Amino acid sequence: MSQVQTIFKNMSWLLISQIITSVCGFIWTILMARYLGVTKNGIFGFATSFTGILAITIDLGISTHIVRHIATDYDSAPKYLGNALPLKSILSVGNILLSLIILIIMGADELVLTVTLLFTIEMIMKSFIGTLNGSFQAFEEGKYQGIGNTISTLLLLIFILITIYTDLDLIGIAFSYILANLIALIYEFYALNKHIAKPKYELDTQFCKAIILLSIPFAITSFLYNIYYSIDMVMLTNLAGNYATGIYNATYKLISVLTLFYSVYTAVIFPVMSRFFKDDESLLLISFEKSIKYLMLIIIPLAFATVVYSTDIVHLIYGQQYEAASEPLCILIWTVCFLFISGACNTLLNASHKETTVTKIYAIVAVFNIVLNFIMIPYLSYNGAAITTVLSDALIVIIQAYVIYKLGHRPNKKLYIDVLKIIGGSAVLGISLYLLNLNMWVAIPVGIIIYLAVMYLIRFFDDDDRYIIKEILGKN
């Protein structure tokens, strides 16, 4: 099986699971938002953002380091996993204590404190799942990660439905997340032992110290990433209240659904690019260029269409009580475009062992994000937080592009032409939908036809693209 076919096979498993996750996530996002109301949805948003920021104290970047190392040395898996899992168990206890202390200092009320601590437990389980998923990615066995994702997603939807039917409120929602992730964790642990590698459990302190030291750049980057991407929710709660957080969280959840494809792509491509860097750096740059091209091909037209139909989308999903969310949705949708580019750049830099550089970039942007949020939120509330997020993502892409250029990884000029073609085609799509003023459901197939016709007319797909398609289909 060729490398392209292997990538496509892994992406297929993960993409199927993420489609299921997206559909189910779309359903429970609607149900939870309507059931909880704006204010309690704000508490939910605060709890998940708060635990996401502190999640790095559980992992310390270990999962990312494991993917890169095991991808180039399969035999090291038992020792790495055998030390990483016990180490993370110890770190989890510290995470719970740290969360409790910070919440008390912040003066969180009883409901916020209880819900946040429950989601802390859920985050610990997700962190362990992340380590197991890293192993599946390293061995290019994405189906086990896909199955685990599907299990947790379907069970979470079922548990949320039960919670709403029995009126267990926000506490019940939190327990739904815990139970779904616990069952998925049990499955993935079974799959790891049976199909991938059996961890050799020990707590080699010297080895653990070495792992932590090598993982710290990934840890700091992840922490800074969560700061700039999640701190707005925490700051909104403190500066503008739970209602503003609820409106912003509703928009944020829609955007999160779109980022799932990026997560699939990164999970599959990172170990491959790590090997490319070791074996053939020219292939590393080619995979980076194709990553940008194909990711932009999907997200940019979607962003234009979302702006045109933002109000219809919010009314359909959340109802009239969340109508104000249409404004931040028009703004935040562009952060996904920048996120896809920065994600491909991060993958290139991390695969090239430039994780320290990535850390420095996110350090700069985290400071920029916090300062700008302090300025924007008091005046523009959730819209200010949305603008800050987009500007932060744009800044990341600008700095990354400069760093990549200085490292000598200079993309072919054709990539820039391709991106301009995508923007042009997407603009034609957006203008057409605006002028036609179609019903949103009618606009979906019409928009797809318009976009594909434009891309065909401007000869977007080249011989390399056709070769890749044939390779995927096994016709080369």
3D architecture notes:
This protein is an all-alpha fold and 476 residues long. Helices cover 88% and strands 0% of the residues. The protein has 17 helices and no strands. The longest helix has 52 residues, at 3-54. The radius of gyration is 22 Å and the shape is globular. The mean pLDDT is 81.
Give the low-pLDDT segments: none
What amount of the residues lies in strands?
Answer: under 5%
| SSE-based structural type | mainly alpha
Shape: globular
Taking Cα atoms only, what radius of gyration do you get, to the nearest Å? Answer: 22 Å
Helix segment count? 17
Cα(first) to Cα(last) distance is 12 Å
Number of strands: 0
Helix content: over 70%
Main attributes?
476 residues; mainly alpha; 17 helices; 88% helix
List the helices and strands and how they pair.
Elements: H1 3-54, H2 56-59, H3 62-72, H4 77-106, H5 110-138, H6 142-166, H7 169-196, H8 205-239, H9 242-258, H10 260-279, H11 281-308, H12 310-318, H13 326-351, H14 355-406, H15 413-436, H16 440-457, H17 463-473
Helix pairs in contact: 1-5, 1-6, 1-8, 1-9, 1-10, 3-5, 3-8, 3-10, 4-5, 5-6, 5-7, 6-7, 8-9, 8-14, 9-13, 9-14, 10-11, 10-13, 11-13, 11-15, 12-13, 13-14, 15-16
Summarize the structure.
With 476 residues, the chain is mainly alpha-helical.
